[in-house]
Amino acid sequence: MTAITTAYPATWRRPPFIADGRLRWALIAGAVAYFVLAIGGLEINWVRIGEGLERGWRFVAAFARPDFLSRWDDIALGMQESLTMALTSTAVGILLSVPIGIGAARNLVPRPVYLVCRAIVAGARSFQEIIIAIFFVAMVGFGPFAGFLTLSLSTIGFLGKLLAEDIEDIDEAQAEAIRATGGSWLQLVNYGIQPQVMPRLIGLSLYRLDINFRESAVVGIVGAGGIGATLNTALDRYEFDSAAAILLLIIAIVMLCEYGSSLVRRRIQ
Amino acid sequence: MLRIEGLTKRYRTGDLALEGVDLEVPAGQVMGLIGPSGAGKSTLIRCINRLVEPSAGRVFLGGAEVTGLGRAQLRAMRRRMGMIFQEFALVERLTVMENVLSGRLGYVPFWRSLSRRFPPEDVTKAYRTLDRVGLIDHVDKRADALSGGQRQRVGIARALVQDPDILLIDEPTASLDPKTSRQIMRLIGEICSERGLAAIVNIHDVGLAQMFLQRIVGLRHGKVVFDGPAEALKPDVLTQIYGEEDWTRSIRDDEEDGDAARADRKHGDHAAEPERERLAGLT
């Protein structure tokens, strides 16, 4: 063997993401300039912040002595409404999002069905819960029914989209095998698809249940009933100790949901 | 039994996977289909049960035309063709029994399959078939708890409970070790002769094909380039199917050409030596 000597370089650098050096530095400079200008554009009123800090401190201090008792009837009613709203809207949301989610899976349905179901999902997802809640309050009046409608709609958007994506990601071979036996479309869904997506669907549904409970507290602020309405009233009256009690209860229930759903999810995997 | 006339498949991407394939498989014959990757073997067997829709040509099963059937008739036709897959294609989270019973889906109404209340005859048939493939003790296990060889046995049982006239078998041993591969091929051969079933077996392993199959069809670039008995697979034929390569070592050594094969094998052992060293170095 004759040794052929070639001089190889001893250093190597990863090629930059933006190859053009000038463009790269221009983008960085632009981002920095924008950030500086944006900070400068904030109008900060230090007097108001000073006043607000004091109120804020009273609010924080109220957590040390939350008052569950003086407004207990209102709190209990609000909690009951919120829990009802969360459970019913999750149940209705799941029932409606399963057919819509199946319809929005490209690999399972004809194109027109796919487009219609995708449009429903996109529509349900396009607005934040508060905006939908304001709309439903205007439509059906104040109270938990508006909240129920809001949360059902956003559950459809959430579960429908994630279920459709899960179905599009399945192992096609398993579905193909069911098709090859001469099974019908419904049998294909039941044997070829459902076993593959079920654990994730259950997990997502439980997750959505605790989202819906948390959201039920938010939509109440715009008049859609539930614990949010009670919280809003307490804050309007500067009853920070009652408000603290409500917030502590919300935290406790959310943590309970979280713990419960992670327990179930671990079992079904 | 199965007749294919002028079968052509052009995919939407423009790739011509099959070009005017004519083929006939008589009842009870187990035919091997070999050819390089991308030759159209998988497409061919999927065009027979129309998991892939052929672009042109006709397929007949027992005198009835498969191509051109409507949805419901196609489903009824698919019951007569059992399919066995490369990566087994079992529904992983269902039990062995559910996987086998899914072979009956074409026969039972939706509500029965949904509630898993299959007719008693079907359940008995599933038990009997599971016993035949040696899995009677694994009925309630989930499919993903089984080994590769066991899974392929479930796949075979699923195809058999369909009461098919023909088996379409796509690379049955591609994900199995050599010993299990032989066992699976032997099982397929035995079952086909027990039941007088015809079969088309896509297979990569030329040696295995020669060992278990009588008739071999070679496919290259979507066309049939060889059709003959397994013994006729000589180096020049393999070159015709796969392209230029030293084929002497891949061919099974029969008694007739034992000397040449033995010499080749010796040669082969030497060639395998550095390979083994390289692998040892990797561990």
Question: What does this 3D model show about the protein?
Answer:
Chain A has helices spanning 21-41, 46-62, 72-103, 111-125, 129-140, 144-168, 172-180, 185-219, 227-236, 240-268. Chain A has 269 residues and is mostly helical. Chain A folds into 2 domains: 21-59, no CATH class; 69-268, MetI-like fold, CATH 1.10.3720.10. Chain B has a domain at 253-283. In chain B, helix 5 packs across helix 6 (148-160). The longest helix of chain B is centred in the last third of the chain and has 25 residues, at 258-282. Classes of the chains: A mainly alpha (269), B alpha/beta (283). The A-B interface holds A 171, 173-174, 176-184, 186-187, 190-192, 195-196, 198-199 and B 49, 51, 75-79, 81, 83, 85, 87, 89-94, 98, 102-107, 110, 113-114, 155, 158, 162, 168.
Q: Which residues of chain A sit in consecutive blocks of at least 5 with pLDDT less than 50?
A: none
Helical region count of chain B? Answer: 10
Q: What is the C-level CATH assignment of the largest domain in chain A?
A: Mainly Alpha
Q: Uncertain segments of chain B of ≥5 residues (pLDDT<50)?
A: 255-283
What share of the residues of chain B lie within helices?
A: 25-40%
Described by the principal axes of the CA atoms, the overall outline of chain A is extended
What is the count of DSSP helices of chain A, taking H or I runs of 4+ residues?
10
Strand order of the largest sheet of chain B: 6-7-8-3-9-10
Radius of gyration of chain A: 27 Å
Largest sheet of chain A: none
Instruction: Classify the secondary structure makeup of chain B into a structural class.
Output: alpha/beta
Euclidean distance between termini CA atoms of chain A: 59 Å
Strand content of chain A: under 5%
Q: What general outline of chain B do the C-alpha atoms trace?
A: globular
Radius of gyration of chain B: 20 Å
CATH architecture of the largest domain in chain A: Orthogonal Bundle
